[in-house]
Please model this.
Amino acid sequence: MFAMSLLQFLIPWEPSIVLPMIFIAAGALYLRGACHIQVSRARRIAFWSGFALFYLALQTRVDYYAEHEFFAHRSQHLVLHHLAPLLVMASYPISVLHAGLPLRGRMCVRACRQTAALRAILNALLHPALVSIIFLVSVLIWLVPSIQFLSMIDARLYRFMNGSVAVTGLAYWGILLDHRPAPPARLRAGLRVLSPLFTMTPQILAGAYITFTQRDLYPIFDLCGRAFGLPAQVDQSIGGLILWIPASLVEAIGSLIALRRWMRLSQRGRL
Model:
């Protein structure tokens, strides 16, 4: 009975061709790269934990509950935007994934890095201020009731929503948890520690508002049918608390990791 229930839980709610291909490619590259360069056990655990959380949030029954309960939806986005990207990028996987590429692939990446136009585009897209703003916007914009309504009834917009929070999460935590001095890191070590204060505060305010408001902001979940039959106000309050407290806690943990890496750089005289 348990095995059958587990199997049903792991079957994708909305099967996709693209997502499994991304997971397989990323997993294969990491395994291959870990065979070519030394990767500590802690880094491996962090990467595969984040990898598994991404899969659970996107390719299992979790996605069904996220469409039928607001608190499950906020839990899914907590994983996609905060927890899973933090774990993956805390393992600084770029070097491992690069090592997993075949020789021709590594040569292609090197050639692209030497292209002035591409470097300019990446510098613009990955500017710390822009990434931080987009990271914050990608949380708040999907909380606007009218936009939330549209994202839940349009399958393409729903997939874009989940993809956008995952990608912006990876970009933000990749900059914040960079273990190198600046440059080549894009943000100074001290600012990496302080950055979560900027992104955390609006989320706390939004979470508090959703938690304590007395009106139903997201009636779409009644239209979709609630998976657990929770009253709308209770479901909404739990979802607001998830945005308010656990999300802030994850960002605080990220700030502490950045602080630890700042102290290491300082001890080594690399600031």
